[in-house]
Design a protein that fits this description.
- This protein has 295 residues and is an alpha/beta fold.
- The strands form 3 sheets. Strands 2-3-1-4-11-5 form a 6-stranded mixed beta sheet, with helices on both faces. A 5-stranded mixed beta sheet has the order 8-7-9-6-10. Strands 13-14-12-15 form a 4-stranded antiparallel beta sheet.
- The structure holds adenosine-5'-triphosphate (ATP), 1-O-pyrophosphono-5-O-phosphono-alpha-D-ribofuranose (PRP) and magnesium ion (MG).
- Keywords: Amino-acid biosynthesis, ATP-binding, Cytoplasm, Glycosyltransferase, Histidine biosynthesis, Magnesium, Metal-binding, Nucleotide-binding, Transferase.
């Protein structure tokens, strides 16, 4: 007797980093955006039926491959990994974490300029990115491909220079290396999707919804809501300090000659804006964090 197997067809299949520095902040961001993405038991896939999304937990380095080939619709990865894989997947939103630069480094004084690399051995885990950059500058090197701990390769004598991720610079310093030349790239976590031409209208709309949700959380993290009361005479000066993203909301107060103002201010500016508002005569100044937004 034939057995009917019910397979749910999801609108969106999304790749999420399963380890490394992208993994925890990616899960936190998706959770804050209302997705069920927490892996209680090292699951390889989570079916978030309520949002009509399936999440696949993959190595960060492989994510651009899955998305570029159309196996998955969207994913979270690093810009450097996306460009290294060069699969046709498109960056559609910068996510603001796992920030780094990608740079050349060598023993101090050994190599000063990109052109000095000609004919030398360069170690990297990002061969695609490095080859493309060097080709654009007409420089030919012997690439040494490594999985990680790239900085150690010069000390161990298998390379003359490295091209690697730099954040604080501690790894380079500990290996007795110094950067040279211009940064190859500024990287951070990014949301990527299949080339738009390959997506159905329904999938495109679902990815746009995902993008808007993630952006809403990022904006909520960057801004706080500020509320204050002020005399009508200083309203203009106060509003100039809190212009908001579009325009502040001004409402009349029961107290004659006073208004209440509500606006968004960048989180790190909030204490300074509060001081300045007080100086112009605003009172009852309150700051509240945002959980999410849709602007
Ligand atoms: N120290 C770091 N600071 C900021 N971003 C980093 C750092 N190391 C790696 N990244 C970024 O994290 C992303 C993922 O890189 P990768 O897969 O190498 O993860 P990882 O955090 O280095 O973990 P692992 O080395 O265990 O694989 C890349 O976009 C890379 O630029
Ligand atoms: O400038 P820093 O703050 O030192 O950070 C940069 C280092 O961090 C990452 O290394 P990771 O620990 O992931 O090891 P890996 O090189 O083996 O990936 C990256 O590959 C660099 O080596
Ligand atoms: Mg690493």
């Amino acid at each position: 007797m034939p057995v009917a197997i019910f397979v749910r067809v999801t609108t969106l299949r999304i790749a999420v980093p399963n380890k490394g520095s992208l993994s925890v902040p990616s899960e936190q961001l998706l959770t804050a955006a209302g997705y069920r993405v927490h892996r209680g038991n090292r699951e390889l896939m989570i079916d978030d039926a309520r949002n009509d999304v399936q999440f696949f937990f993959l190595r960060p380095r492989d994510i651009a491959l899955y998305v570029g080939s159309g196996t998955l619709d969207a994913g979270l990865t690093g810009r450097d990994l996306l460009l290294d894989a060069d699969t046709g997947a498109e960056e559609i939103l910068a996510l603001g974490y796992s920030e780094s630069t990608f740079r050349f480094a060598a023993r101090p004084g050994a190599i000063a300029d990109l052109r000095d690399l000609d004919g030398r051995r360069v170690a990297t885990s990002y061969p695609g990115l490095v080859e493309k950059h060097l080709a654009e500058h007409g420089v030919q090197v012997k690439l040494v491909r490594l999985e990680g701990a790239v900085e150690t390769s010069v000390q161990l004598g298998i390379a003359d220079a490295v091209a690697d991720v730099v954040e604080t610079g501690t790894s380079l310093r500990n290996s007795g290396l110094a950067v040279f030349g211009e940064p190859i790239l500024k990287s951070e976590a990014v949301l990527i999707r299949r080339p738009a031409a390959e997506l159905t209208e329904e999938s495109l709309a679902a990815i746009e919804r995902l993008r808007r949700r993630l952006k809403g959380v990022l904006i909520a993290r960057q801004y706080v809501m500020i509320d204050y009361d002020c005399p009508v005479e200083v309203q203009q000066a106060a509003c100039a300090l809190t212009p908001g993203i579009e325009s502040p909301t001004v409402s009349p107060l029961a107290r004659e000659g006073w208004v209440a103002v509500r606006s968004l201010v960048p989180r790190e500016r909030a204490p300074f804006v509060m001081d300045e508002l007080w100086e112009v005569g605003a009172r009852a100044i309150l700051v509240t964090p945002l959980e999410s937004s849709r602007l």
